[in-house]
From TrEMBL:
<feature type="transmembrane region" description="Helical">
    <location>
        <begin position="43"/>
        <end position="63"/>
    </location>
</feature>
<keyword id="KW-1133">Transmembrane helix</keyword>
<keyword id="KW-0812">Transmembrane</keyword>
<feature type="transmembrane region" description="Helical">
    <location>
        <begin position="14"/>
        <end position="31"/>
    </location>
</feature>
<keyword id="KW-0472">Membrane</keyword>
<protein>
    <recommendedName>
        <fullName>Integral membrane protein</fullName>
    </recommendedName>
</protein>
Amino acid sequence: MPHGTFIFVPEQAYWWYLASTAIGLIISWSLHNVIAWMKNKAFMARWLSLAYIGTVFLAQPYWGVEIFANFAYFNNIDAAFYESCDHWKHYFGGQDAL
């Protein structure tokens, strides 16, 4: 639950805390998808099983970029980078805000 506790952090560390707890959130999301794949692969054709787990692995580099983009945007490092990456979020399973 650390990602939901960022409102209690002092303002100086707020965005650092938000970006660092997002890492755990993404790991949890990815692990959930891998476990779901392990449970369901017996009921899938081989090509579908490979496509499913392949999309989980292919999404991982995006999430690294997304975490950095959020950090850079909220720390006034590079707002343009965040805005150029933001429209890709919906293709990789993201919500409106991380």
